[in-house]
Amino acid sequence: MSHYQGIIDRYRAFLPIEKNDSIITLYEGNTPLHESHNLRLAINPELNIFLKFEGLNPTGSFKDRGMTMAVTQAYNAGSRKIICASTGNTSASAAAYAANCGMIAYVLIPEGKIALGKMSQAMRYGAKIIQIRGNFDQALSMVCDIAKEESDISLVNSVNPFRIQGQKTASYEIIDELGFAPDYHALPVGNAGNITAYWLGYQEYFEKRISQSLPKMLGFQASGSAPIVRGHVVKNPETIATAIRIGNPASWKQAEAARDTSGGVINEVTDAEIMQAYDMLASLEGVFCEPASAASVAGIIKLNAQGYFAAGANIVCTLTGNGLKDPDSAMQSIATPITVDAEMDAVRRALEGK
Ligand SMILES: *Cc1c(COP(=O)(O)O)cnc(C)c1O
Predict the structure, then answer these.
(1) pLDDT tens, 101-116?
(2) How remote is the CA of residue 183 from the centroid of ligand 1, in Å?
(3) Cβ(197) – ligand 1 distance below 6 Å
(4) How far apart are CA 242 and CA 55, in angstroms?
(5) Contact residues for 342 (Cβ-Cβ < 8 A; gap 6+)
(6) Are the C-beta atoms of residues 186 and 124 closer than 8 Å to each other?
(7) What's the whole-model pTM score?
């Protein structure tokens, strides 16, 4: 078959996959690299801003890139049970890949802090969901202990190195499409697996001389949950961007290494800045991402205002998840549609704003 068959098939030579492994795929990856125009004009016409829209993966977030690798590895090692802690998207992705190969997915989530779309996905895909009265960091620590004690259950959080391997393919796709590495790569930082993975992917293509340069990595945390920016664990992280509501990132050191070796920055953006970028992406560009995803663009706006970028810079922002995941955030602070009688006069008056 020659049609697109997912990231493992496409990038097999760069991934730790055995020849005879059965590949568990939902045809993830191959997501659009959207060249922004109205958004770029609004931010700074001298910049080239590309949006890697990971919300168009099969379960609506970049987590699918890591999950095809983690579940393929677990499945071929004979495991039939996976477990993860999640702010939402990991659980939806784990549940989908588990369903696809007849595995059981157990997920621990913080009660009441999961966007509606993510919760409904995990339930429909048939995951065994346990809500805890606590936050993501507590959930992660518990699933790590469970996976250590129960040898037949595989952990599929991003501390699983196969997740990072899968997620690095987003950098490959960007270079394969642009023909070069961008000058800057911006993305939201939660548990910090993704910034680690992108940096790995960029370095590998550079070492293999597929690209001639490396981007500076720009990571953005929400102000209410910005442990790397503050330099200490945040006990009770808070932000509207629930996907990055994490106070003690598992890949903290790797994120700092990506920042320092690339010469980039890890900075913070407020919930108001996140929601402004979220709104601009949808209304100026027609790209609907979830709030956490917009932290990348909010960060670019912030750095641009400080004069950080030189004219002509090529910037890629990862939009990590789909806006449809979080209808509650979407409906916040927005005018509700007006209702009129089903009569032409009434509709005409409404069109004219009367
Ligand atoms: C998981 C997730 C993040 C955070 O990624 P990390 O690898 O944990 O830093 C950001 N945005 C969305 C939509 C996510 O699902």
Answers:
(1) 999 999 999 998 888 9
(2) 22
(3) no
(4) 15
(5) none
(6) no
(7) 0.96
